[in-house]
Specification:
The chain is α+β, with helices and mostly antiparallel strands and about 180 residues long. The protein is about 20% helix and about 35% strand. The protein has 3 helices and 9 strands; from the N terminus they run βαβαβββββαββ. β4 and β5 form a beta hairpin. It is globular, with a radius of gyration of 16 Å. The model has no long low-confidence stretch (mean pLDDT about 90).
Amino acid sequence: MKVGMHASETFDDILVRKNKEFDRTGMSFWGYGGGTMHPISKLQPFAKYRIKQGRDVRLVMELIKSNHSMSAVADEYSEDGENWKPIPEGIEVRGSKYALVLNEIVPGELEVDLTRYVVGIGPSEGKNAGGYIKGRVDKGLLDYVGPANEVSPRIVKSAYSAKLAQPFGVLLRGERPAR
C-alpha cells in the first residue's frame, strides 16, 4: 500500500499515533479507501485463506508524496456490514471508509520486486502486480509467485510493515472531531 500524508496529518505523525494506539490497545486500525481491497468481499476472504495455509498476511508500506486532506473521524466499525460497534477506546481513524486491523508496525528496510507477485483476488486475479500497482491503483492483495519471465523488475522500497490481525479489515462510519 502506498502511504503518505492523510487527513492533513504527516506520515510520521500518523506512525507515532498508530504506535501509541498499539501500545494502549494491542492493535491499530489503518484507514484506507478504494474497492481494490474491500474489507468484506476481498480482504477478509484473501486473508482467511492465506492464514488457513499457514501464511502471514502483511501490510508493506511504500512512502509517497500525498496531500490528502479529508479529516472526518470514524466512530463505528463493522466486520460484516450489518453489526456495528464503537471504535475501540484509544483508536482513531481519520478520513477513511475502511481500515486494516494491524499488529505492531515495525521498521525495516525492505525492497519488494512487484513483478514477483500477482493479484490474489478479484477481477484482476492473476495479473502481475508490477503492472497492476501504478497510477491510481495504490494498493493490492498480492500473492508471491517468484520471478516473472521476460519482465523487468519493478522494485518498491518500504521502511515499515505490519502483520494483519483478526478480523483483518473493517468498514467504518460516523463522524466526530479529531482528538
